[in-house]
Amino acid sequence: MDLDLTRLKMLLELQQRGTVTRVAEVLSYSHSAVSQQLKTLERDTGFRLLERAGRNVRLTTQGQVLADYAGRIFALADEAEAALANSTDDVRGTLRVAGFQTVLAAATPSALDTLSARHPDLRVELTQRDIEEGVKGLASRGFDVVIGEDYPGVPQVPTEGFDVEVLWQDTMHLLFPRKGPYSELPRGLDALREAPLAVDPEAHVMGRWVRDLCRSAGFEPSVRYSTPDPFLQAHLVRGGHALALAPQLIIRDGVDGVDVIDLPGSPRRTLWTAVRAGAETHPAVMAFRQALAEQGPTG
Question: Residues in domain HTH lysR-type (predicted)?
Fold first, then answer.
């Protein structure tokens, strides 16, 4: 049996993504090309790997078995790549990193400066992605490292098949305007009973956490401005239009024109990096993780 790695990757992507359309989008193939390659894989194996499910397809039992083995094959390839890289003192090559806005904006530029000085032959490529999409891209080998975050009661850390390393914990704060009607409200979480809120959409982990925080305090927040952009949120507060919550990582570089208030219990988000299991000993991965961890906030 001659198994083609490209076809195995398509099968693994189908297991993870669920549709041929998504596989085609992620791997930059046409829908028909992916379908044809999967049919060829069926001929190569002599087994039916796919079956119809309405307008889509799903893996058969044999398809699931082969996709599981494909995951193990690619994990072993990561281990081999790490072993080869560790056989030399050089840290080089290209490292593809996916992350979300606050850490990319506030921490990675300094980390890149550090890496440029320590390892000039290492090229780091950054892509902004939601955490869920980043983890899917990591699983499909589109990225080498994903930066993510967890909030109290809203876990987001991937587990099976990944190596996860905590970067730091980041204290959350409440931002108040210094002008406008909301500037006169008592400084505390209860102000959100009366003031509009600028916050991430509920589909985002921070957006879910903020809403849960308000609901646990006995009220439903008035979300007037729904945006994942923390800088726009701060700008809306500065203009006197809303209140917002922000991490120390954003605040440390200066949030002008707003008052920064501690929250009860000093809740913290946890920032982490994830790589595919087997890749954690790769010199480029270890160098990037170390450089990024050194950029953590204080407070």
Answer: 3-60
Residue 6, phi then psi, degrees to nearest 5:
-65, -40
User: Could you give the CA distance from residue 202 to residue 204 in angstroms, rounded to a whole number?
Assistant: 5
pLDDT in tens, 5-21: 899 989 988 998 889 99
Q: Which CATH class is domain 92-299?
A: alpha beta
Q: Which fold has domain 5-83?
A: Arc Repressor Mutant, subunit A (1.10.10)
Question: Which ranges of the chain does DSSP label H, i.e. alpha helix?
Answer: 5-17, 20-27, 31-45, 61-86, 101-106, 108-118, 131-139, 205-216, 230-238, 248-251, 283-293
Note the Cα 279 to chain centre separation in Å: 17
Q: Which residues of the chain have pLDDT under 70?
A: 159, 254, 298-299
19/54 Cα distance (integer angstroms) = 12
Beta strands in 248-286 (DSSP E): 258-262, 268-276
Q: Determine contact, residues 6/33, Cβ cutoff 8 Å.
A: no
The encoded tokens of residue 2 equal 């001659």
Of 246, 277, 278, give the one whose Cα is nearest residue 259.
Answer: 246
Is 43 strand, coil or helix? Answer: helix
The CA-based angle 53-73-45, given to 5 degrees, is 50
What is the maximal distance between C-alpha atoms in the chain? 74
CATH 3.40.190.290, the chain: domain bounds:
92-299
**Could you tell me the two tokens for 29?**
């193939």
> What's the one-letter identity of residue 125?
E
Dump pLDDT digits (tens) for 238-281.
999 999 999 998 888 767 889 999 999 999 999 999 999 888 99
What pLDDT shows up at residue 29?
87
* Token pair belonging to 262: 């501690």
